[in-house]
Amino acid sequence: xxxxxxxxxxxxxxxxxxxxxxxxxxxxxxxxxxxxxxxxxxxxxxxxxxxxxxxxxxxxxxxxxxxxxxxxxxxxxxxxxxxxxxxxxxxxxxxxxxxxxxxxxxxxxxxxxxxxxxxxxxxxxxxxxxxxxxxxxxxxxxxxxxxxxxxxxxxxxxxxxxxxxxxxxxxxxxxxxxxxxxxxxxxxxxxxxxxxxxxxxxxxxxxxx
Length: 209
Ligand SMILES: CC(C)(COP(=O)(O)OP(=O)(O)OC[C@H]1O[C@@H](n2cnc3c(N)ncnc32)[C@H](O)[C@@H]1OP(=O)(O)O)[C@@H](O)C(=O)NCCC(=O)NCCS
Fold this sequence. Notes:
An 8-stranded mixed beta sheet has the order 1-2-3-4-5-6-8-7, sandwiched between helices.
Protein backbone atom coordinates (compact mmCIF):
# COMPACT_ATOMS: atom_id res chain seq x y z
CA UNK A 1 0.00 0.00 0.00
CA UNK A 2 1.25 3.49 -0.90
CA UNK A 3 1.74 5.87 2.02
CA UNK A 4 -0.80 8.69 1.94
CA UNK A 5 0.78 12.12 1.74
CA UNK A 6 -0.71 15.59 2.04
CA UNK A 7 -2.43 17.19 -0.93
CA UNK A 8 -3.27 20.81 -1.51
CA UNK A 9 -5.24 23.08 -3.82
CA UNK A 10 -5.15 26.78 -2.96
CA UNK A 11 -6.25 27.28 0.66
CA UNK A 12 -7.56 23.71 0.90
CA UNK A 13 -5.37 20.96 2.23
CA UNK A 14 -6.14 17.27 2.64
CA UNK A 15 -3.86 15.36 4.97
CA UNK A 16 -3.91 12.21 7.06
CA UNK A 17 -5.57 12.60 10.45
CA UNK A 18 -3.17 12.65 13.42
CA UNK A 19 -3.62 11.67 17.05
CA UNK A 20 -3.09 15.28 18.05
CA UNK A 21 -6.14 16.39 15.98
CA UNK A 22 -8.41 14.75 18.57
CA UNK A 23 -9.11 17.82 20.65
CA UNK A 24 -9.86 20.12 17.68
CA UNK A 25 -12.05 17.52 15.94
CA UNK A 26 -13.94 16.74 19.12
CA UNK A 27 -14.60 20.44 19.62
CA UNK A 28 -15.94 20.78 16.05
CA UNK A 29 -18.17 17.71 16.40
CA UNK A 30 -19.63 18.85 19.70
CA UNK A 31 -20.17 22.46 18.65
CA UNK A 32 -21.87 21.46 15.35
CA UNK A 33 -24.43 18.99 16.69
CA UNK A 34 -27.53 20.38 14.95
CA UNK A 35 -25.58 20.73 11.69
CA UNK A 36 -24.10 17.24 11.65
CA UNK A 37 -26.53 14.96 13.46
CA UNK A 38 -29.04 14.36 10.62
CA UNK A 39 -26.22 12.98 8.45
CA UNK A 40 -24.14 11.16 11.04
CA UNK A 41 -23.53 7.42 10.94
CA UNK A 42 -24.93 5.56 13.95
CA UNK A 43 -25.04 1.90 14.96
CA UNK A 44 -28.27 -0.10 15.34
CA UNK A 45 -27.63 -1.39 18.84
CA UNK A 46 -25.50 1.15 20.64
CA UNK A 47 -24.66 4.79 21.01
CA UNK A 48 -22.30 7.00 19.04
CA UNK A 49 -19.02 7.76 20.75
CA UNK A 50 -17.52 11.23 20.69
CA UNK A 51 -14.22 9.92 21.98
CA UNK A 52 -12.13 11.30 19.13
CA UNK A 53 -8.91 9.88 20.53
CA UNK A 54 -10.34 6.37 20.24
CA UNK A 55 -11.96 7.10 16.89
CA UNK A 56 -8.67 8.39 15.41
CA UNK A 57 -6.82 5.39 16.82
CA UNK A 58 -9.29 3.08 15.02
CA UNK A 59 -9.06 5.07 11.78
CA UNK A 60 -5.26 4.95 11.81
CA UNK A 61 -5.36 1.21 12.49
CA UNK A 62 -7.62 0.78 9.45
CA UNK A 63 -5.14 2.87 7.47
CA UNK A 64 -2.24 0.66 8.57
CA UNK A 65 -4.34 -2.39 7.61
CA UNK A 66 -4.90 -0.89 4.14
CA UNK A 67 -8.65 -0.67 4.77
CA UNK A 68 -9.00 3.11 4.69
CA UNK A 69 -7.49 6.57 4.22
CA UNK A 70 -8.61 8.88 7.03
CA UNK A 71 -8.05 12.52 6.11
CA UNK A 72 -8.80 15.89 7.63
CA UNK A 73 -9.68 18.86 5.47
CA UNK A 74 -7.95 22.12 6.34
CA UNK A 75 -8.77 25.60 5.15
CA UNK A 76 -6.04 28.21 5.52
CA UNK A 77 -4.36 25.96 8.07
CA UNK A 78 -7.48 25.45 10.20
CA UNK A 79 -9.26 22.11 10.54
CA UNK A 80 -12.54 22.35 8.59
CA UNK A 81 -13.73 18.73 8.77
CA UNK A 82 -13.02 15.11 7.96
CA UNK A 83 -12.93 13.12 4.74
CA UNK A 84 -12.74 9.39 5.21
CA UNK A 85 -12.03 6.87 2.46
CA UNK A 86 -13.47 3.67 3.94
CA UNK A 87 -14.47 0.19 2.93
CA UNK A 88 -11.40 -0.29 0.75
CA UNK A 89 -11.79 -3.56 -1.14
CA UNK A 90 -8.78 -4.81 -3.04
CA UNK A 91 -8.55 -7.90 -5.28
CA UNK A 92 -11.01 -7.87 -8.15
CA UNK A 93 -12.89 -4.79 -6.89
CA UNK A 94 -10.25 -2.18 -5.99
CA UNK A 95 -13.01 0.12 -4.77
CA UNK A 96 -13.79 2.34 -1.79
CA UNK A 97 -16.37 4.76 -0.44
CA UNK A 98 -15.92 8.40 0.63
CA UNK A 99 -17.67 10.04 3.59
CA UNK A 100 -17.24 13.67 4.67
CA UNK A 101 -18.33 16.58 6.82
CA UNK A 102 -17.27 20.19 7.37
CA UNK A 103 -18.18 22.47 10.25
CA UNK A 104 -21.02 24.85 9.46
CA UNK A 105 -18.77 27.92 9.45
CA UNK A 106 -16.71 26.40 6.61
CA UNK A 107 -19.71 25.44 4.44
CA UNK A 108 -20.07 26.85 0.95
CA UNK A 109 -16.39 27.44 0.19
CA UNK A 110 -15.95 24.45 -2.09
CA UNK A 111 -13.80 22.68 0.47
CA UNK A 112 -15.53 19.31 0.19
CA UNK A 113 -15.69 18.97 -3.61
CA UNK A 114 -12.04 20.00 -3.82
CA UNK A 115 -11.06 17.49 -1.14
CA UNK A 116 -13.15 14.70 -2.72
CA UNK A 117 -11.43 15.40 -6.04
CA UNK A 118 -7.96 15.34 -4.45
CA UNK A 119 -8.70 12.13 -2.56
CA UNK A 120 -10.23 10.35 -5.55
CA UNK A 121 -7.31 11.35 -7.79
CA UNK A 122 -4.83 10.05 -5.21
CA UNK A 123 -6.79 6.80 -4.83
CA UNK A 124 -6.84 6.24 -8.60
CA UNK A 125 -3.27 7.26 -9.39
CA UNK A 126 -1.32 6.37 -6.23
CA UNK A 127 -3.26 3.93 -4.06
CA UNK A 128 -4.27 1.45 -6.74
CA UNK A 129 -8.05 1.89 -6.58
CA UNK A 130 -10.32 1.68 -9.60
CA UNK A 131 -13.75 2.78 -8.36
CA UNK A 132 -14.86 5.43 -5.85
CA UNK A 133 -18.35 5.56 -4.46
CA UNK A 134 -20.29 8.19 -2.51
CA UNK A 135 -23.68 7.41 -0.92
CA UNK A 136 -26.01 10.26 0.04
CA UNK A 137 -29.41 10.55 1.67
CA UNK A 138 -32.02 11.96 -0.76
CA UNK A 139 -32.72 14.76 1.76
CA UNK A 140 -29.12 15.99 1.75
CA UNK A 141 -29.22 18.71 -0.89
CA UNK A 142 -25.80 20.16 0.02
CA UNK A 143 -24.08 16.80 -0.33
CA UNK A 144 -25.89 16.05 -3.58
CA UNK A 145 -24.38 19.29 -4.91
CA UNK A 146 -20.90 17.92 -4.21
CA UNK A 147 -21.36 14.90 -6.50
CA UNK A 148 -23.19 17.02 -9.09
CA UNK A 149 -20.30 19.47 -9.27
CA UNK A 150 -17.73 16.72 -9.73
CA UNK A 151 -19.80 14.72 -12.23
CA UNK A 152 -20.05 11.51 -10.21
CA UNK A 153 -22.42 9.13 -12.01
CA UNK A 154 -25.74 8.19 -10.42
CA UNK A 155 -25.84 4.42 -9.96
CA UNK A 156 -28.98 3.71 -8.01
CA UNK A 157 -31.20 3.83 -4.98
CA UNK A 158 -30.27 1.65 -2.01
CA UNK A 159 -33.17 1.14 0.35
CA UNK A 160 -32.50 1.35 4.09
CA UNK A 161 -28.80 1.13 3.27
CA UNK A 162 -26.85 2.88 6.06
CA UNK A 163 -27.74 3.47 9.71
CA UNK A 164 -27.80 7.27 10.00
CA UNK A 165 -29.14 9.45 12.82
CA UNK A 166 -30.74 6.49 14.55
CA UNK A 167 -32.37 4.52 11.73
CA UNK A 168 -31.77 2.70 8.45
CA UNK A 169 -31.91 5.33 5.72
CA UNK A 170 -32.34 5.15 1.97
CA UNK A 171 -29.32 6.36 0.00
CA UNK A 172 -28.51 7.33 -3.55
CA UNK A 173 -25.24 5.81 -4.77
CA UNK A 174 -22.85 7.69 -7.04
CA UNK A 175 -19.52 6.51 -8.43
CA UNK A 176 -16.57 7.19 -10.70
CA UNK A 177 -14.13 4.72 -12.15
CA UNK A 178 -10.64 5.56 -13.18
CA UNK A 179 -11.55 5.39 -16.89
CA UNK A 180 -14.17 8.11 -16.37
CA UNK A 181 -11.51 10.65 -15.46
CA UNK A 182 -8.31 10.18 -17.49
CA UNK A 183 -7.44 13.84 -16.81
CA UNK A 184 -8.21 13.55 -13.08
CA UNK A 185 -11.31 14.57 -11.11
CA UNK A 186 -9.91 17.92 -9.97
CA UNK A 187 -8.60 18.94 -13.40
CA UNK A 188 -11.87 17.87 -15.04
CA UNK A 189 -13.92 19.95 -12.62
CA UNK A 190 -11.67 23.02 -12.69
CA UNK A 191 -11.57 22.81 -16.49
CA UNK A 192 -15.36 22.98 -16.59
CA UNK A 193 -15.48 19.51 -18.16
CA UNK A 194 -17.39 17.60 -15.47
CA UNK A 195 -20.56 16.25 -17.12
CA UNK A 196 -23.49 18.38 -15.96
CA UNK A 197 -26.09 15.63 -15.73
CA UNK A 198 -24.14 12.54 -14.62
CA UNK A 199 -25.57 12.79 -11.10
CA UNK A 200 -29.18 13.36 -12.20
CA UNK A 201 -31.67 11.14 -10.40
CA UNK A 202 -34.06 9.41 -12.82
CA UNK A 203 -37.74 10.20 -12.09
CA UNK A 204 -38.42 6.57 -11.12
CA UNK A 205 -35.91 6.84 -8.23
CA UNK A 206 -36.94 10.26 -6.95
CA UNK A 207 -38.33 10.00 -3.47
CA UNK A 208 -40.84 12.50 -2.20
CA UNK A 209 -39.16 14.22 0.72
C1 LIG B 1 -22.39 18.31 2.53
C2 LIG B 1 -21.19 19.15 2.93
C3 LIG B 1 -20.02 18.24 3.28
C4 LIG B 1 -20.80 20.05 1.71
O1 LIG B 1 -19.55 20.63 1.97
P1 LIG B 1 -19.08 22.07 1.47
O2 LIG B 1 -17.62 22.12 1.67
O3 LIG B 1 -19.92 23.13 2.06
O4 LIG B 1 -19.41 21.97 -0.12
P2 LIG B 1 -19.69 23.18 -1.13
O5 LIG B 1 -18.96 24.41 -0.71
O6 LIG B 1 -19.46 22.64 -2.49
O7 LIG B 1 -21.26 23.47 -0.96
C5 LIG B 1 -22.20 22.51 -1.41
C6 LIG B 1 -23.61 23.09 -1.28
O8 LIG B 1 -23.93 23.31 0.07
C7 LIG B 1 -24.91 24.36 0.16
N1 LIG B 1 -24.44 25.35 1.11
C8 LIG B 1 -23.50 26.31 0.95
N2 LIG B 1 -23.35 27.02 2.10
C9 LIG B 1 -24.23 26.52 2.98
C10 LIG B 1 -24.55 26.83 4.33
N3 LIG B 1 -23.94 27.80 4.97
N4 LIG B 1 -25.49 26.09 4.93
C11 LIG B 1 -26.11 25.10 4.30
N5 LIG B 1 -25.85 24.73 3.01
C12 LIG B 1 -24.92 25.45 2.36
C13 LIG B 1 -25.06 24.95 -1.23
O9 LIG B 1 -26.21 24.36 -1.81
C14 LIG B 1 -23.82 24.44 -1.92
O10 LIG B 1 -24.00 24.28 -3.30
P3 LIG B 1 -23.61 25.53 -4.27
O11 LIG B 1 -22.13 25.71 -4.17
O12 LIG B 1 -24.08 25.10 -5.60
O13 LIG B 1 -24.35 26.74 -3.74
C15 LIG B 1 -21.53 20.07 4.16
O14 LIG B 1 -22.72 20.77 3.87
C16 LIG B 1 -21.67 19.28 5.46
O15 LIG B 1 -20.69 18.98 6.11
N6 LIG B 1 -22.93 18.98 5.84
C17 LIG B 1 -23.19 18.22 7.08
C18 LIG B 1 -22.63 16.79 7.05
C19 LIG B 1 -23.00 16.05 5.79
O16 LIG B 1 -24.06 16.22 5.22
N7 LIG B 1 -22.11 15.17 5.32
C20 LIG B 1 -22.31 14.40 4.10
C21 LIG B 1 -23.07 13.15 4.32
S1 LIG B 1 -23.29 12.28 2.77
